[in-house]
Amino acid sequence: MSTILIRSICFLVLKCALWGVIASSAIGSISPQMVIKPEKNAVKTEEVFSVGIGIENAPPVYGTEFIIQYDPKVLEVIDSDADSEGIQIKAGRFFNLSQNHFELQNHVDPENGKIYYAVSMLNPSQESSGTGLLAEVIFQSKSASQGTGLEFINGKMGNREGMMIRPDIVASGAIAITDNIDVIGIKLWILGILFFFMIILPLLVFWIYKNKNIGNRFTRLLERIYKFITPDLSHRKKAMEAQTHPR
After folding, report:
1. Distance between CA atoms of 155 and 185, rounded to whole angstroms?
2. 79 contacts 34 by C-beta, under 8 angstroms
3. Which of 76, 160, 138 is nearest to 110 (CA)?
């Protein structure tokens, strides 16, 4: 009986250990993802907005490198470091850049619409893991577009031992750009004008026609207003004749 009990306990222990291995393998199989996260999915022309370059589910890594393509006819990158030559983007907080590090690349090719960024930590700095922001790009929209895209040409990371890690690329950088005009306001104005001339004005004319007394009063009121705002030309003509031909 004791032997059966011991075997049962050993079987339970082995089963728990096996489930632990399976669970750890499942957790470890979650792939890191490099993502593009626009601050807005719709902007107006000449509007300034930011786009985050993020990493999710990253294992311990020591550096990153990516190239992003954008349409230079539609978007313009705003320089984030006026003290340096060229156009730079802003570093994120995924890596602790207060520690020893080296920025291999950080420049923008505005003619071809490409962003180059690469950074590596240096000993004795610590690795970073998890989810965070690798960099931030400040854009200004130049012209209207139904959906201009931002996409990775290249994206990779590396650990402390120099092993390269290829994250999954998530293309989520579509941005719609509309003309910097209050289209809704214009449409409301047009609808209001059409409503007045097609509904209000005909009803007003019909109401005045049906009520002749009111119509006469309304006509006399318009005549008074016209006389008030219009100069008395005959009086002016007599005054000018009197000055020209004095008695």
Report:
1. 43
2. no
3. 76
Q: On the CB side of 46, how many CA atoms lie within 13 Å of its CA?
A: 3
Label residue 18 left, alpha or beta by phi (over 0 means left) and psi (-120 to 50 means alpha): alpha
Cα separation, 211 vs 136, in Å, equals 70
Query: What digits encode the pLDDT tens for the residues 62-118?
Result: 999 999 999 999 999 999 999 999 999 999 999 999 999 999 999 999 999 999 999
pTM of the model: 0.63
What ranges in the chain are assigned the alpha helix state H?
A: 2-28, 183-195, 201-210, 212-229, 233-244
Across 66-84, b (16+ Cβ under 10 Å) vs e yields: bbbbbebebbbbeebeeee
Adjacent-strand bridge partners of 44: 178
Residue 89 tokens, joined: 């983007």
Give dist(CA 51, CA 138) in Å, integer.
6
Regions of the chain short of the pLDDT cut 50: 1, 5-28
- Residue percentage of the chain with pLDDT more than 70: 64
Give CA torsion, residues 97, 124, 116, 89, to 10 deg. 10
d(CA 104, CA 118): 5
Cα–Cα distances in Å, from 169 out to 27, 34, 108, 166, 176? 19, 5, 20, 9, 21
- Predicted pLDDT at 66: 96
